[in-house]
Amino acid sequence: MFTSHKLVMETKDTDKLLKDFFGEHKQEIHDNGFTRRVMRKLPEQADRSWIVWCFAFVGMMLSLMLGFSSGSIQTAINYILQIPVYYLIGVVFCFPLVSTAGLLLAQNRHF
Amino acid sequence: MSKTDDIRWVTQLTLLGDKSAFDKLTCKYQSPIRRFFLNLTMGDAPLSDDLAQETFIKAYLNIDAFKGISGFSTWLYRIAYNVFYDSVRAQKHYADLDEHVIDCQHQTQNDFSAEKLDIYKAIKQLRREEQTAVLLFYMEDRTQNEIARIMNCPLGTVKTYLLKGKEKLSVYLTQAGYGN
């Protein structure tokens, strides 16, 4: 019993000794252009950003089709037409402010 | 920066071929990977930088093979481990280099202090597999399961490497006056 307790204590001590030792010698290596050198050596790959545009186009087409077939787009247009003009002007002026504020908030939160 | 960032950047790279995403991954992991190599090569900075560069290039070329089962860092360490052992096999003479010659090279090529040499002397007490396991566990804060995945060996073997490494290091460090 005493022997096993002693063994556990010794193992803990060794662990602490090694953690302290390696912790002391752990160094952060500064980039010093390493990433740039790696990036320069990478082979060129085809730009596949067209996939995003392709999906965006298909998505937009689908939503327009569904919107027109269900009549929700016509309803939305009628609804907008009933809104007084000065409300619409207010929305147009507020939009950049609100979107900029949203963007700043998102950047601060590192989404 | 979390693991979700890693997944996002890997996705950007694999789906869109967005190179800047890999730039972020390299920037994030260059320090731990270079440190890992620096310790394995006993402080040979130019060699460890070459090996790290090879690791990142291999990761970029084989990024489609990353399934996300283990973390990106574990996958990267696995590549680094393979790169290092390939290099050891390719340069047999490296292992036979005289200790004194290595120490002299260190002193001329790098800004080495006595403290830094201490760690290399300590690591030299271990066998290569023990060195890798101990460095990954104590220096790089990897779990035993992750080390088993990186070294592609059973968990029991990793535990044995760590135990043996611990015993040897404990004796060496106590003699060197670290435990007091």
Explain the overall architecture.
The complex is a heterodimer of chains A (111) and B (180). Chain A has one domain (2-108). With 111 residues, chain A is mostly helical. Chain A starts with a helix and ends with a helix. Chain A contains 5 helices and no strands. The radius of gyration of chain A is 31 Å and the shape is elongated. The longest helix of chain A has 24 residues, at 2-25. Helix content of chain A is 79%, strand content 0%. Chain B contains 10 helices and no strands. Helix content of chain B is 77%, strand content 0%. Chain B folds into 2 domains: 1-116, Rna Polymerase Sigma Factor, Chain: A (Orthogonal Bundle), CATH 1.10.1740; 125-180, Arc Repressor Mutant, subunit A. At the A-B interface, helix 1 and helix 2 of A face helix 2, helix 3, helix 7, helix 8 and helix 10 of B.
Give the tags.
heterodimer; A: 111 residues; mainly alpha; elongated; B: 180 residues; Rna Polymerase Sigma Factor, Chain: A; 2 domains; 10 helices
Helices and strands, with pairings:
The complex is a heterodimer of chains A (111) and B (180).
Chain A: H1 2-25, H2 34-41, H3 50-70, H4 72-82, H5 85-108
Chain B: H1 3-16, H2 19-40, H3 45-61, H4 72-90, H5 92-96, H6 99-109, H7 114-123, H8 128-139, H9 144-151, H10 155-175
